[in-house]
Design goal:
Keywords: Membrane, Transmembrane, Transmembrane helix. This is DoxX family protein. The chain crosses the membrane at residues 12-32, 81-101, 113-131. The chain is mainly alpha-helical. The protein has helices spanning 7-32, 45-55, 57-74, 78-100, 103-122. Helix 1 runs antiparallel to helix 3 (57-74) and helix 1 crosses helix 5. The longest helix is centred in the N-terminal third of the chain and has 26 residues, at 7-32.
């Protein structure tokens, strides 16, 4: 008889599916406009979004959002995808909750950041190596090397 997964795994899978689906749809909807995007009329946030759009930065953000959504739905490079989305989630949270502060934006901004952080916590084992205070250097060009590089930059 097969072993059943821990109930928390179902919560993580559901959160990842929702967050991935939302990110993919939000990113692609920006380019294909299946549904009208809400207009940001706030005196600070509106011009901010308009400026990012004029610079082409919003296209990049929405492209990353669509890519992250696809990666999450396919469960490919999930820990990397979650870190790619984190700056976007923080920006959405800050703009929605701190700047705009409407009922709708309070929910959407908080949901975005909470889901991203919850999923990062669920995949935390993949990040433990990143949290070393003084990590060893392991450059890409020494991929097959058995030993890390020793010494600090600048040592002669």
């Amino acid at each position: 008889m097969g072993r059943l997964a821990h109930p928390a795994k179902y919560v993580v899978v559901a959160a990842q599916g929702f967050f991935g689906g939302h990110s993919l749809f939000s990113g692609l909807n920006y380019f294909f406009q299946w549904l009208p995007s809400p207009q940001v009329t706030h005196p600070l946030a509106g011009p901010f979004i308009d400026s990012m759009t004029a610079m082409g930065l919003f296209d990049v953000i929405k492209g990353v959002e669509a890519l992250v959504g696809a990666l999450l739905l396919l469960n490919i490079l999930t820990p990397v995808a979650l870190l790619m989305e984190l700056p976007i989630s923080i920006s959405i949270f800050y703009t929605s909750v701190i700047v705009v502060h409407s009922e709708r934006s309070l929910f959407t901004g908080t949901r975005e950041l909470v889901l991203n952080l919850f999923l990062i916590a669920a995949y935390f084992g993949f990040y433990k190596g990143l949290l070393k205070l003084r990590p060893e250097m392991r450059p890409l060009w020494r991929w097959g090397a058995r030993e890390p590089m020793t010494g600090s930059p600048g040592q002669g």
